[in-house]
Every structure is written in structure tokens, then in C-alpha cells.
Design a protein that fits this description.
This protein has helices at residues 2-10, 12-31, 33-61, 63-89, 96-106, 266-281; strands spanning 110-119, 128-130, 143-146, 149-157, 162-166, 174-178, 184-188, 196-203, 213-216, 228-237, 243-250, 259-264. By secondary structure, it is an alpha+beta fold. The strands form 2 sheets. A 6-stranded antiparallel β-barrel has the order 1-2-5-4-3-12. Strand 7 and strand 8 (196-203) form a beta hairpin. The chain is elongated, with a radius of gyration of 31 Å. Mean pLDDT is 77; it is low at 94-106. It holds the Pfam family MreC.
């Protein structure tokens, strides 16, 4: 206390000066219209700039959430565009019932947005890690998509993280079909550039053309039908000559992939469990 009083006594003239300055500024701006208007304008400009900075900072830190919401919405829109496009193409045919059925099925999907935290694209056994796990509702064998198409399948699940087998893995095997053609095959990656993969086991009698789109078939009990995979670039004969091997340009850019969605769908999960039960029941003793 003694030191405080000594300090105030030593610098009392500075405190008096500051107080007088404050009083003089108050009197100046309060009782002089011109100076008051200048102060008001300057104060508003400074306050506005501070609010602008605060808004920019808040917007920056909310970008992650915005990106997740956009990715989830893009996945929904991708499906809806797919269905509406097919409905428009077949407008003169009686296929509206099937279209309505698929649209009603889409409404039951629950997408869990996630962010890619680790990814590789140059190895035969590429894996991908996302920042959502068991605590977020992610389970093994769930399909994963992004706003532009198929990504992969959940392989291992921890409490807050999951590991995926992406399309760019030689063990990946996803059932797909050539859009509007009705021919099925299996999506496989044999290594090489990350933007290309192959649709194997396409029947020799299949009729399609370069540029046709390939989508998921819905037969795998992991992905719903109609999720975009890529488009046809080239057609080759299989090694045994009994089928076609179709090279695809993948719709998903795995080198830039950041935001994805895990498909959590009860009917698909029930189908998968039923298929597993059936496989177990026919295993030899």
C-alpha cells in the first residue's frame, strides 16, 4: 500500500494531465457540432472495421462445418440429378414407378459427413483415414461417397476414426453398371494413375459407347444404386476373351479429396446382415 501511494504521489502530475485531457476531449466533442460529427464518423468507421474483422475471423473458422454441409448436400443432389436425368430420358416410357421407388429410397439415407485426415494414391494397398468413427455412428462395411461419386468402403472402425478401402486399392471390388444400358460388372483398380480404373466382366454381347456413364448397381448391399463411378474411356478384351474390360475415367479426384460422407442406411444394413447370415448358413461343416 505504501508503494502504491508513493507511486501515485511521484507521478500525480501525469494522472492530472490525463484526466484533464479526457475532460477536454469530452467537452470539445460534446459541445461542438463539427468536432462531434467528426468523432462520430471516425468512431463508426473504426467500429465497422472491427466488426468486419470479427465477421471474417468467424467465417474462416466456420469453413470446416460449411464444407461438411456442402459435401453432404452435394451427395444428395448427385443422387437426385441422377434420378431426374433418367426420368427425363425415359419420359415416353412407363418407368415412373421405378423412379418414384428410388426417390423414396433416397429419402431414407442418412449421410455422416467426415473429413479425410490421411490418404495415399500411389500404393497397391492404398488406405484412407477419416475423422469419424464408432462414436459418430460409423460401422464396418458402410459405403463412402463424396459430392462427385464413389470413394470406398469402411474397413476398420475405432471410436473417433475409421480406415477405408478406397477404390484405389487392388482389393476393392464394387458392383457397378453402365447407366441406361443395364450391363453389370465389377469396379477394380490395378495400380497406375489415380484417375483411372477398370470395369471387369462386362458381357461380350453388351452394347454401349465411349463416354457412357458408369454408376453403382445397388447389388453390393453397400452402395445404393445410381452413385456415379466414372465414364467409359476405352474398351478391351479380357484375358480369356470371354468378356470386356472397360477402362473408366473416375469421377472422384482422389488426389484432392478432403470431404466425404459415410452412407448410414438401415435397409442396406439389413440386406448386408441377411447376406452374411446366408453365407454362414451354407458354409461346409
Amino acid at each position: 500500500m505504501h508503494n502504491l501511494l508513493e507511486f501515485l504521489a511521484k507521478y500525480n502530475h501525469w494522472f492530472v494531465f490525463v484526466i484533464l485531457e479526457v475532460v477536454s476531449f469530452v467537452l470539445l466533442f460534446q459541445y461542438n457540432s463539427y468536432q462531434g460529427s467528426v468523432w462520430f464518423s471516425s468512431a463508426n468507421a473504426v467500429t465497422g472495421k472491427l466488426y468486419e474483422w470479427d465477421s471474417n475471423v468467424e467465417t474462416f473458422f466456420s469453413l470446416t462445418k460449411v464444407n461438411q454441409e456442402l459435401t453432404q448436400r452435394n451427395a444428395y443432389l448427385e443422387q437426385q440429378v441422377q434420378q431426374l436425368s433418367e426420368k427425363l430420358t425415359d419420359a415416353t416410357k412407363d418407368s415412373t414407378f421405378a423412379q418414384r421407388s428410388q426417390m423414396s429410397l433416397l429419402q431414407s439415407y442418412h449421410l455422416i459427413p467426415a473429413k479425410v485426415v490421411a490418404n495415399s494414391i500411389d500404393k497397391p494397398g492404398n488406405l484412407m483415414t477419416i475423422d469419424k468413427g464408432r462414436a459418430d455412428g460409423v460401422r464396418k462395411d458402410m459405403g463412402v461417397v463424396c459430392g462427385t461419386g464413389v470413394v470406398g468402403i469402411v474397413y476398420l472402425v475405432a471410436e473417433h476414426y475409421s480406415v477405408l478401402i478406397p477404390v484405389l486399392n487392388i482389393k476393392s471390388n464394387i458392383s457397378c453398371t453402365i447407366k441406361n444400358r443395364g450391363y453389370f460388372g465389377y469396379l477394380r483398380w490395378k495400380g497406375g494413375p489415380s484417375e483411372y480404373a477398370y470395369m471387369e466382366d462386362v458381357p461380350r454381347h453388351a452394347h454401349f459407347k465411349l463416354g457412357d456413364y458408369v454408376v453403382t448397381s445397388g447389388y453390393s448391399a453397400v452402395f445404393p444404386p445410381g452413385v456415379l463411378v466414372g465414364k467409359v474411356l476405352h474398351v478391351f478384351n479380357s484375358a480369356d476373351g470371354l468378356s470386356y474390360r472397360v477402362q473408366l475415367k473416375l469421377s472422384t479426384d482422389f488426389a484432392k479429396l478432403r470431404d466425404v460422407c459415410v452412407i448410414d442406411d438401415a435397409p442396406m444394413r439389413e440386406r448386408l446382415e441377411l447376406m452374411r447370415a446366408a453365407q454362414d448358413s451354407i458354409k461346409p461343416d
